[in-house]
Amino acid sequence: MEDQRLKAFCLVVEMKSFTKAAEARFMTQSAISHLIKNLEDELGVKLLNRKGKTIELTPVGRVFYKQAKFILGQYKAMEDELYSVLNKVKGSVLIGASPTISTYLLPQVFYDFSRQYPEVHMHLSVSNTGEIINELSEGRIDIGIVEGQVNDSRIVSEKIAEDEIVMIASENNPLTEKTGITSRDLMSQTFILPESGSGTREIVDNYLASLGINAQKLRIFMTTGNPELIIQMVQSGSGIAFVSKWSAFKSIKEDMVKLLPVSSQRLRRQFCIAFLDQQTLPMTAKTFIDFVKKYKFFIPF
Fold it and tell me: Are 135 and 127 in contact (CB under 8 A)?
């Protein structure tokens, strides 16, 4: 229960882009532009100045944005109180998750949750951990599900599952014959690396640094945030890669790629659910958080 024009307007302001706002709302750019124009026409004022790709609030727009955020907050509070009286969990929940988590952990979670709470609508945005924390701190999402702990005192984060970063290669890569991998071995290889800002990339860079290797000096064929593409590139023989065991499980089981011995110390990490303050969240988000914290995740290997 909310004014879609207010929602669209606030999203454009916060994302500083009609294109990004449209993608987040699963709309076309022309559709979201129409909502904003309709709002400006009704009010008879200009709310946004468009200078090329740059968007700025007009003085009136700044006042309007502040009040729009308050009104949207009131809509959420009203829904919560109504559905609380009715003992019903209904509405939407805005979630941000990393590519690995959204692809390999969340589909079954969403399915099980929807069976128990069929009147909750899920909005999922996929980005790296750094971007998710920004969206969370700016109030654009209710919940973030990220790789590793969150180092931000404003944000609560709790572990929901364990992960391990593993190194993989194609079956004909000579490193698959070795029982141990040296720094020299790694320097001789071509890499497909996760994008900067991701939890996986942080672990990879720290691991390489512990071996005395500067990641910038590696032979890097590709950098991408898509875990499935990374595995496909490794399978094709384009290079070796560090990936989550969740994303590599099927390919390793089917002998499409091979595990390489990273080190005697396994590269473990946590997947965490993050939020600003559970007390101020809508009932849908609180319910989803409690559901995920109790969820029994499948352990790949």
Answer: yes
Does 177 fall in a domain?
A: yes
Question: What is the CA angle 153-77-279, rounded to 5?
Answer: 30
Q: What is the mean pLDDT of residues 38-58?
A: 87
Residue 210 structural domain: 163-265
Is position 47 within any domain? yes
pLDDT of residue 89: 84
pTM to 2 decimals?
0.73
Q: Is the pLDDT of residue 224 over 60?
A: yes
Computed from CA positions of residues 166, 170, 173, 176, in that sequence, does the dihedral angle turn out positive or negative?
positive
**Residue 232: CATH number of its domain:** 3.40.190.10
Look at the chain and report how many structural domains it folds into: 2
Long-range contacts of 74-81 (CB under 8 A, 24+ apart): 75/1, 75/2, 75/3, 76/2, 76/282, 78/1, 79/1, 79/282, 79/283, 80/282, 80/283
- Cβ neighbours, 10 Å, residue 193: 23
Is 40 contained in some domain? Answer: yes
Looking at 64, 87, 110, the residue that finishes a domain is 87
